[in-house]
Amino acid sequence: MSTAEPVHPVEVPFPTAVRASALAAFQLVEDARYRSGRRPRNERRRLLAQRAVAERKAEREVERELRLG
Fold first, then answer.
1. 39 FRET partner, CA 20 to 30 A, in 17, 26, 29, 48?
2. First vs last Cα of the chain: how many Å apart?
3. Which residue range(s) make up the domain with 51?
4. CA angle 41, 43, 51 (to 5 degrees)
């Protein structure tokens, strides 16, 4: 081949599968972030606080039983 001959471009297939999976991943993230069934933060905080109170109460009861027993 000499410099006078044109260079033929190499055909590279487009990565459509990669684009599609990236789009699907983005949509999953957006759906998880903005889904309608999401609990409000206050409800989650209340649930965590109730769980903490119940754990402390159970711990006090166990300590009381160990002292009496």
1. 26
2. 97
3. 40-69
4. 115
- Asked if the structure places residue 4 within a domain, the reply is no
Instruction: Quote the tokens at residue 2.
Output: 């000499």
| Count of domains for the chain | 1
Q: What is the pLDDT along the chain (69 residues), one digit of tens a residue?
A: 566 777 777 776 665 555 667 778 888 888 877 776 666 778 889 999 999 999 999 999 988 888 886
Instruction: Map tokens 């487009």 to a residue.
Output: 14
pTM of this structure: 0.42
Tokens of 17: 């599968």
